[in-house]
Write the C-alpha cells for this entry.
Amino acid sequence: MPQLTVSFSHIDVHDDADNWPNGTGEIYYDLLISNQSIVSRPSNNPQNVDSGGVILINEQRTLNRPNNDPNAFVKINGWVSEADDFLSGGDDRAGGFEHIHNAGNGWGVGTHDARLRGDGLDVTVHYNISVVQDSGL
Ligand SMILES: [Ca+2]
Ligand SMILES: [Ca+2]
Ligand SMILES: [Ca+2]
C-alpha cells in the first residue's frame, strides 16, 4: 500500500507578541494529523522565541495512504499561541489552520505553509508531504 510521510519542519515567528519589557515570547503549540497530536509544547513549558526567530521541529510520521476510497482524506491541522500572565491580559492566540489533502490534490505532496495571525502573534507553520515509494513487496 502506498504511504505518505508528513514532516513538520519548523515554525517561523515573525512577531512573538511580546514587546518591552519582555524580550522573548513564550510560544506553545500543537500540530496534528487527523486530530492526533504529533508534536506539541504545553503552555507551562513554552519555547522562548523572539520576533524573527525559528522553532525547529523536524518531526515526521508515515501513514498508509488510502488507495481506493474516493472519500478518503488526510487532515493536517494545528494552532500556535503565546503565553502571558493575567497582568498582561491573557495569552495571545495566532489561531489555527486545517488543511485537507486527498486524491484530488495529489495528497498534498510538496511543501505547505500555514500563516497564522492573531492577537499580535504572527507565525508560519511549515510542513512537507512526500510519498514513500511502494517497495513492491
Ligand atoms: Ca519580543
Ligand atoms: Ca504576549
Ligand atoms: Ca509572553
User: Anything to note?
Assistant: Residues 16, 18-19, 23-25, 50-51 surround calcium ion (ligand 1) (CB under 6 Å). The mean pLDDT is 92. The longest strand covers residues 3-16.
